[in-house]
Amino acid sequence: MKRALSVISIFAFLHSNAQQKPTPDKETKIEAVTITKVKKAVEQKADRTIFDFSEQPNLNSGSVMEGIKKLPGLIVSDVAGMLYQGKMLDVYLDGRPLNISSNELNAFLEGMPANSVERVEVITQPGAEFPATSGGAIINIITSKTAKNYLTATYSGNYNFTKYDKWRHRTNNSVSLNARNKLFGWQLNFGQNYRESMLNATQDDLAESNADRIIRGYFAKSAFTFELGQDRLLLNYDIYHNNNDITTFSSGTFLNNSYQSTDLTSTLSNRHEAVATYQKRFADKSQKLDFKFSYSNSNSGFTQNNLDANRTVLDNSSDMDVYNFKVDYSQPLNILNEGKVAFGGMFDRQNFDTKAQDITNLDYQRQNVATYLEFQTKYKKFDFILGTRAEDYDISGITYNQQENRYEELTPFKKFKFFPNASMQYNLVPQVYFSLNYNKKITLPSISVLNPNNNTYQNPNSSITGNPEVRPTIFDNYEAKISAFDYAFVGYNVSVAKDQVVQKITRSGDVISTSQVNVSEMKIHNFNIGLPIPYMIFNTSIKEMLKFDFNPDKINYLYVYAGYQIHQLPDIETNGFWIFSLNSQIILPKEIKFVANFNYLTPKASYFYLVADKPFNNSLNLNFSKKFMKDKLTVSLYADDILNSQKMAVHSVVQQPFVYLSSKNDSRRFGISINYKIPTKNNLAKEDPNLLNKDKKEESAGEITPP
After folding, report:
1. Domains and CATH numbers, the chain
2. How far is CA 185 from each of CA 175, 678, 697, rounded to the nearest angstrom?
3. What is the pLDDT of residues 330-349, one digit of tens each?
4. Burial of 309 per CB tally in 10 Å (0-12, 13-18, 19+)
5. Distance between CA atoms of 31 and 101, rounded to whole angstroms?
6. How far apart are alpha carbons 395 and 349 in whole angstroms?
7. Beta-carbon neighbour count of residue 74 at 10 Å?
């Protein structure tokens, strides 16, 4: 027991020891300077948890979706969506909302290579500066780099394969170029992703299907930074293209007749985004004024052709335009000891329309005008944040009623509402904090939910549709948390949602229907704990460990995460579940780093109106990596879901008899990943990532895209 309680003391020592700097007794002539950028694998802050992808081979091999599924406390599934420590996540890319979800979001993240990601931030307490539509929490995927005063170039490549019923291959390649001169800095990041996969599924005793999937993704990100005296102008343009084909063989029973069907579904999607940011800077570095304008367009086409009958089953398309302008200002303010005030405004306009067989069946418009005010201050050992955001919504549109053969107006949503937030943090001792947080948020129905064409496959036994009539969800989020030295923490949070949008699955005869509906009120309770344990604690005395001077990146350790969640609904009894995540690092001879990651969710858990008969997450992942050529080349060998235990099996509880669904994909994969920092004329810059310690120090002078 004493050893377990001493874990925090050891990491406190490591933290302070890593930051100690010797004081010279006499003048020393400096012959050369080495610039070192220090990163952490995981960093806990008051409002967010930051996961570094760039230096973790176990995360940056494969796709972004595969990487984020390994993050402790994060649940990703087709039926539960994306949750972190019990909070529904809104997905951002480089600080800007993607405005997509469900099937389109999964395809987007599967088509994006994980090695193009710098870090992932899970913002558990979005303040007033974030849109109130951020819901319970935000996952912000940061792909931007930092431009230096010389050219830097990095190549990343990955190949892996799976073997289920046959061999399938996956590969991705990307190149990142960064440079800077006296006038401007520039960045170009481009790459491709090719992915073959399989998915087997069953629907009750009605149907079975086998889908052979080919996913092709291409992306290019460009940016320019112009220094205008103290001010800065940033210009970004990003493009993403996905071309996916799925061949599905299905068989089943409908109206006492058996059938077999072979279908080809094709999805072609494009996303363009342009952003212009002007950053006004002042003599006081903590005083900032930012103007940002962004425009994005997303369009997709989806077809399903029955190869047996040579006919088109589905022919859908969608087009979305989003315009956004925002102003943010902050400056120091003497409140109590020291503080800051921030305020700003935003205008957002979204137009979205969908077509089926050339008939426009949804024409949707959303306009949002907002302003916010937030104060931050410190008093002795206390940190305080108090703010509010005022938002005005105007949502309208028309939808096509196919049964009535006429157009109908959507239920309009016109509302002005305040969304307050408050945080208090008490610093018990250096690097040990106790915090209380509250915020009110809103989640507008996602495009995927509203889209009447929200259907990726149709057979006689399936009916999947969007619901243009669902209402926005209002969240009240409460949290209490104790954290120590970035890695150890204990927390509890509860999220109270009104009109939560959930998925319902019902059966009528031989047809299984999937629909989205509002629930009057729902609560999600979440308790979680994280603890790092150095392996040396089991064979070395505490006294000897505290004398030991070492780099924490070179030690063997186990990181333990455990969480308990329960989703409470008003009309049914639900079961809670445990989430376990174990992450182990062992340094082998020749400085080969071995990382093992195990994730498990207990079965029989309730996710809204579904019960998991198998855990949504149950996988063991192994990774061996080594650096060569003075750390310029990193090579990794890995195996994901080595036990082939990842499987989804759920049943609905809306009606009896229950509806049972299950699916299994070829999640067990083996591969190799390389990351090569192409040599340039200037070799003074060096990255020294530490998995367990040291403060993250990053210069911001050349940052291309602010998070």
Report:
1. 2-20+34-687 (2.40.170.20)
2. 17, 19, 20
3. 999 887 778 899 999 999 99
4. exposed
5. 54
6. 10
7. 22
Phi, psi of 278, rounded to the nearest 5 degrees: -115, 120
- 475-520 pLDDT, tens digit per residue, is 888 889 887 766 688 889 888 888 888 888 889 889 998 888 888 8
First to last CA, the chain: 42
The answer to whether 318 and 279 have CB atoms below 8 angstroms apart is no
Residues 6+ apart with CB under 8 A from 346: 131, 324, 325, 326, 327, 368, 369, 370, 371
3-state secondary structure of 589: helix
Of 615, 619, 620, 601, nearest to 662 by C-alpha is 615
Q: 534-580: per-residue pLDDT in tens?
A: 888 887 777 676 665 555 567 788 889 999 999 898 888 899 999 99
Q: Which tokens go with 578?
A: 């445990």
* Helix and strand element counts for the chain (H, E): 7, 38
Contact 323, 288 (CB under 8 A): no
What H or E segment, with its residue span, contains residue 173? Answer: strand 167-180
Helix (H) or strand (E) holding 72: none
* Cα gap 542→574, rounded to integer Å: 45
Residue 552 DSSP one-character state: G
Q: Does residue 69 contact residue 84 with C-beta atoms inside 8 Å?
A: no
Report how far Cα 222 is from the mean position of its chain's Cα atoms.
22
Which residues, including other chains, have CB under 8 Å from residue 571's CB and lie 6 or more apart?
none
> Looking up tokens 């921030």, which residue turns up?
342
Nearest to 72 by CA among 85, 87, 90, 58: 85
| Pairwise CA distance, residues 243 & 65, whole Å | 17
Query: Regarding beta strands 462-464 and 511-534, do their DSSP bridges make them parallel or antiparallel, or are they unpaired?
Result: parallel
Q: Is the backbone peptide bond immediately before 657 cis, with ω within 30 degrees of 0?
A: yes
For residue 531, how many C-alpha atoms fall within 13 Å in the half-sphere facing its CB?
15
Q: What are phi and psi of 654, to 5 degrees?
A: -75, -35
Give SS3 for 134. Answer: helix
